[in-house]
Amino acid sequence: MAIKSKKHMKTEVLVAGGGPSGLTMALLLANAGLDVICVDQAQKSEQLKESFDGRTTAISAASKNVLAAAGIWDALEKDACPILDIRVADSDSPHFLHFASDESDKGAFGWILENRVLRKALFEAAEASPLTHLQPVKIEEFAYADDGKAVTATLSTGQVIEAQLLIGADGRKSAARDWAGIGTVGWSYKQEAIVCCAQHELDHENVAVEHFMPAGPFAILPMMDTEKGKHCSSIVWTEHGGDAKRYLEMSKKDFDAALQEHFGDQLGKVKHLGTPMVYPLSLMHAKRYTAPRLALIGEAAHAIHPIAGQGLNLSMRDIALLAEMVVDRRRVGLDIGAATMLKTYQRLRKTDNLMMAAMTDGLNRLFSNNIPPVRFLRTRGMSMVNRLPPLKRFFAGQAMGFGGLGGRGLPRLLNGELL
Fold first, then answer.
1. Three-state SS for 203?
2. What gap in Å lies between CA 310 and CA 278, rounded to an integer?
3. pLDDT tens-digit profile, the chain (419 residues)
4. What is the DSSP string of 122-180?
5. Would you give the DSSP letter of residue 287?
6. Alpha carbon of 232 to those of 98, 225, 248, 250, 258: distances in Å?
7. Which of 3, 295, 333, 352 has the highest local Cβ count within 10 Å?
8. 294 φ/ψ angles, rounded to the nearest 5 degrees
9. Cα 409–413–418 angle (5° rounding)?
10. How far apart are CA 181 and CA 119, in angstroms?
11. Burial of 58: CB neighbours in 10 Å, binned 0-12, 13-18, 19+
């Protein structure tokens, strides 16, 4: 919808942040009949440039259900490459874990999608929805209404928005989180991820590979073929902090040689496409997810190591739970910003997110080294998982996004139901 021009606006929900998490949240609520305003300080045209975000995202099977409920999966599916098998290898060990989707009745483990393709679909859906999407606009100040029953946000345009519920979806440097005085804990992994697209001679056959190296994981994620029929994969190549720069300073020929060395010959000759980008890796977790009339989602609340490709998928779990709670309360005439609801949201999501943060942190520390006794234990552990089908099914369910949620059953959206 077009920007509303009146000076003071009232709405039920204000979403601060218009990235993939914020817009998905806003679309779900707006399509369910709530009055929603989403404020994004970044220009839409800038966000669609490859230089703005050159990464891809792994969309789990459960997260696909959330995007379908938001009305955008149909627009994404043609560009989303399904992951049918997952292979986990440890350095030069001959042992590896293999997960096959045909061992489950739930279909693909997930899909690999370019972030800019996801953003484009979200922008188009926002244009066609009852959502009010304001951009590029910055929120200059937050405050509580005098009666405490609303939050107000003053925009860079001079407009003031009053909302019953504020959802902070404004990333790791969240202004909404800072305004509420919510601190964070975390640390740098002293690792950097080199991200690029690689073209290779042989078909990846929809297999995602996570190859653990001493410096960190090297992930090969299947992508759709190019328009000319060339086979492609997305690469997330982890190096110790500072080493990534050395690779980016190489000539194209030398970079491709290093890339080939990491790949091996499993997909034939390899070369990179486009310009590789580097992202520092760290863990961040908000000490609280809520404050009066405020709920944090996505990277405003948590950011984890990309070792298992679960970053956006955790955000989708935040979104699914919060959307269900807000819509259910609104349908029976209850306060959608009530403290009791926010307390339940925080308890359930913190449990789930902390478990995933601990798992990814532990995996990175366990595998990102070359210590012989540790390597021996890793090999034994992988062999054990391969020999125990129930354990393999558990890990496969986690990869698909159908794992537990802090003692509560999965929200309807994750299970493919509507709000």
1. coil
2. 19
3. 334 456 889 999 999 999 999 999 999 999 999 999 999 999 988 898 878 888 999 999 999 999 999 999 999 999 999 999 999 988 777 667 888 888 777 789 999 999 999 999 999 999 999 999 999 999 999 999 988 899 999 999 999 999 999 999 999 999 999 999 999 999 999 999 999 999 999 999 999 999 989 899 999 999 999 988 999 999 999 999 888 999 999 999 999 999 999 999 999 999 999 999 999 999 999 999 999 999 999 999 999 999 888 899 999 999 999 999 999 999 999 999 999 999 999 999 999 999 999 989 988 888 887 787 777 777 777 777 777 777 777 777 878 888 766 556 789 999 899 88
4. HHHHHHHSS-EEE-S--EEEEEE-TTSS-EEEEETTS-EEEEEEEEE---TT-HHHHHT
5. S
6. 21, 6, 20, 22, 17
7. 295
8. -135, 135
9. 120
10. 30
11. buried
DSSP 334-365: --TT-HHHHHHHHHHHHHHHHHHHHHHHHHHH
Nearest partner of 266 among 196, 205, 197, 225, judged by Cα: 205
> How is residue 190 written in tokens?
């002293």
Give buried/exposed letters for 169-198 (b at 16+ CB in 10 A, else e). bbbbebbbbebbebebeeeebebbbbbbbb
Strands 216-223 and 231-240: antiparallel
User: Cβ contacts of residue 389 below 8 Å, gap of 6+?
Assistant: none
Q: Locate 179 and state its tokens.
A: 């305004």
Q: What are 286's two structure tokens?
A: 């908000």
Give dist(CA 415, CA 227) in Å, integer: 33
Which amino acid is residue 117, in one-letter code? Answer: V
Rounded CA separation 330/324 (Å): 10
Phi-psi group of 406: left, alpha or beta (phi > 0 → left; psi -120 to 50 → alpha; rest → beta): left
Q: Which two tokens stand for residue 206?
A: 């929809």
CA angle 97, 231, 193 (to 5 degrees): 60
Query: 270-286 and 290-291 as β-strands: parallel, antiparallel, unpaired?
Result: unpaired
pTM, rounded to two decimals: 0.93
Q: In the structure encoding, which two tokens stand for residue 257, read together?
A: 């040689």
